[in-house]
Design brief:
The protein is 0% helix and 44% strand. The protein is built from no helices and 9 strands.
Length: 107
């Protein structure tokens, strides 16, 4: 089921927003390369990822860095990219439709 994350004007490049989706919190963000959504939880210590630094990559999806201990996660797959995290977090589909940003679970 798709969920409205907000209007396009709420998401300038670099914007991040955490929202509740069912029983989980999802971080929705906009980078130079597009819209992304990932579980708002570091798999290392359950700290939120909101506010983490986004790094763009030329040949892969961008990543987000946990502000607490520096673990990084691929925004497309949720895969942990460095220690101290070793487990992936859930990733979601995020897209723009008629000036609205939408999120849904990947199938």
């Amino acid at each position: 089921m798709k969920t409205l994350a907000g209007h396009l004007n709420e998401f300038p490049i670099g914007a991040q927003k955490s929202l509740e989706l069912g029983s989980e919190y999802v971080l929705v963000l906009r980078s130079i390369s597009g819209f992304w959504a990932i579980e708002d939880r570091c798999s290392h210590d359950d700290n939120e990822l909101l506010g983490g630094e986004i790094t763009e990559h030329e040949s892969a999806a961008p990543s987000i860095k946990c502000v607490r201990h520096g673990a990084q996660f691929n925004l497309e797959t949720g895969k942990a990219q460095c220690l101290p995290a070793v487990k992936a977090v859930k990733s979601y589909r995020a897209w723009l439709e008629a000036d609205q940003v939408w999120v849904e679970e990947k199938e």
